Amino acid sequence: MDRVDALKRIAAQAERGELIFPTNIDAALKIQQAFGDSDTHIEKIARLIQAEPLLAARIVAIANSVAYNRSGREIADVRSAVGRLGFRTLHALATAVVTRQFASMIADPQLQAKASQLWEHTAHVASLAHLIAQRITLVDAETAMFAAIVHEVGGFYLISQAPSHPGLLDGDLAGWVEQGERIIGRAVLKRLAVPEQVMEAVEDCWNGFLTLPPVTLGDTLLLANQLAPVVSPLNQQRTDDEGREEALEGPSLIDHVVGDETLAGILEKSAEEIHSLMMALRF
């Protein structure tokens, strides 16, 4: 079976709801689903998180990042972190763990490298989307970060299936969006019970039409995606040898005027906040 046939087969299975999740994802899924229950109490959430060391560590790190720790008072326990972040942010982080764990059991070093680059890209997009929502588009920042965390979930699923389909991710992957990202992505997003507005924003990102000035959740996600210094390994256009996006020629997005500032100026002033959040998301 060649790569195109394998991709079509995986897409067809996903469209039928026949998703194959790694067994180690179950615990993270239970936590993620708990946030969708309005009767879940903060103490139960804290206990669930404490049982997952990876998630617990990330939540404390996010709570201490510049984006969420305006007072400068560092905390060191999950219960305090839960109180500082709130359920919506915690839901996004639990979903991040689910997304990242799709490829956590892969042994092949080349596939691991692709998964690591994809998460690096995701972390950059999430931190940028959070800032862009706050400073430029004025949409809800937590929803923007959540949308960014899940916008490449179809790619993570594809990487998780690659060991069963030798050669699936070899060579030029420019046709990935047209051949399967939408089908596979929609199926996984549906399984994760992603809200409709987030689904629509991810669809906007797939379509790639950025409105200027950016105003919607989709614009927020697409702008963050275009500004991310690390691109998806499934979309390797204009990248250098280390996976960083090369500078755009001609008029650049960062020269776009937002109020009395340029986008470049906003990004420069908020560099510490972006970096702090991005580093906390890298796991």
From TrEMBL:
Signal peptide: none annotated. Residues 21-208 form the HDOD domain. Pfam families: HDOD. InterPro entries: HDOD, RNase_Y/CdgJ. SUPFAM superfamilies: HD-domain/PDEase-like. PANTHER family: PTHR33525, RIBONUCLEASE Y. This is Signal transduction protein.
